[in-house]
Fold:
Amino acid sequence: MNDFGFGPDEVAAIHLSLKVAIWATLASLPPGIAVALALARGRFWGRDLLNGVVHLPLILPPVVTGYALLLLMGRQGWVGKPLASIGIVFAFNWTGAALAAGVMGFPLMVRAIRLSIEAVDTRLEQAAGTLGAPPVWVFATVTLPLMLPGVLAGAVLAFAKALGEFGATITFVSNIPGRTQTLSGAIYAYTQSPGGDAGALRLVAVSVVLSLMALLLSETLARSVSRRIGGMS
Amino acid sequence: MSAPPALDLDVTLRQGDFDLQAQVTAGRGLTVLFGQSGSGKSTLIDLVAGLKRPDRGRIAVDGVPLVDTAAGLWLPPHRRRVGYVFQEARLLPHLTVRQNLLYGRWFARRHVTAEAPTLDSVTDLLGIAPLLARRPAGLSGGEKARVALGRALLAAPRILLMDEPLAALDEARKAEILPYLERLRDHAGLPILYVTHAVAEVARLATTVVMMNQGRVRAVGAPGTLWSRPDLMDLTGGAEAGSLLDAVVGGRTADGLFQLDTAAGRILVPHLPPHLASGARTRLRIPARDVLLSDRAPQGLSALNILPGIVADVREDADGSRVVRLECVGAPVLARVTRTSADALSITPGQPLWAIVKAVALDRGS
Structure:
């Protein structure tokens, strides 16, 4: 990377951004699928409330979400304090950046997955049931493969969101170079310092390239999945 | 101890305005649930499959109880071992034909006996071996229907449930599937519950018919018996009403006509479907509107088939025409005549008449 003239903090920021985005995406997939399933299929008291809570990060100012994370997950937070006592620390740590990025991307991921679940023909699941498949098997062999395009789309959205997250991250874990400074944070820092334009532009280019690559990868995956499903749109 | 019935059910279910109360006992062979849409026949088959739950009642297949609300028993669909062939096939789009066929095999592994059908025997029976590597999206309607049937058979079911499996297919595709269903009925020993509202399918396939109307069972019996009952004519076809006669294919006459022996007498037809060889059993349908009546033995007529009989019953139809049931040596033949003709012949029960059959439908309207 240094061949391109990146400084050590810039390389660290690129690395951190990728690490944060990948972890945020992977870690939110299981709860994302579970919540999407509950919202699409579940009939329980408080479903609308759950839907509202999941969508909060989408409509709240990111700073508010970041502050809420600080209150909840910070070293002195209701959840953060007991977690810190067993060695899991989010505050001012890259894990906190991943958490903030994951929370911000969560509504986008859940929406995409929920739509794909609602598009799955439940009559196919019934057919699998009459063939002797217990419900867990039906989910693993029918529902999950058929909703895969939506899961991919949701993962890419969450990844892109995580890559670009700024407000909640900087509020929750600050902008410490080499520790919690992601691409967005580094670009912001450059724009705040005189003569930082060249550095900002370099990182902006990296940002554009990474986002485009994620998009292309998802398109390719989606195409191969729909080919495998065969003629399904 | 005698063998338990293939299907024994007695259920009630209320869904909104629809109220189903049915008691059915069916033996081996193919039992048709016959009725118009909304009669409850599909609901009944869904109750057997476990896709719907009855309010009250019990269902047993081959003596194995699947549902008994009094005992608090309700087996979920995946533990019932019913092979369900849906009208829209419902093949899994992300799997190949082979994977679809074998989908239920794993779950049925404990029940697969030496006589159970194998992938090879099923693909041979249904002629789908060339399709194994393909995906459902690329199959024709007839191919999908055959794969769906094979998939149900390979799950080693206790009973085969078929919900209008031919309704979505055109005549040519139906003709493609029907022989497989006949082979299944005659050779597999697997009880089949078959939902349809098509008389042609009843004529060709049914061992027993359960006639349904507005959530109730109106009658149960052999197709020939039910189709000759004037009190069931509102269900057996109205304008399309006719009698069903069991027949054995005989030899050919000197001038090339085919003989069909029925209880009512010998019927001659110019053509036979190719699958009917001499000695084969079949069922022919005589539409009531294609039967003329005469009060003396007719002579000098072009019609081939003239059957003597005794008037058993005269009934006025909704449009004012008369439907006459003639007992022809024990086999009933229905004739539809106008009121004017009925008056001119002064048709009364007990009167001898001759039925002149203008047209005979064999299997699928050939």
Observations:
- Chain B has two domains: 7-221, 238-361.
- Chain B touches chain A at residues 49-51, 76-84, 86, 88, 90, 92-94, 103-104, 106-108, 135-138, 151-152, 155 (CB under 8 Å).
- The longest helix of chain B spans residues 171-187.
- The mean pLDDT of chain B is 85.
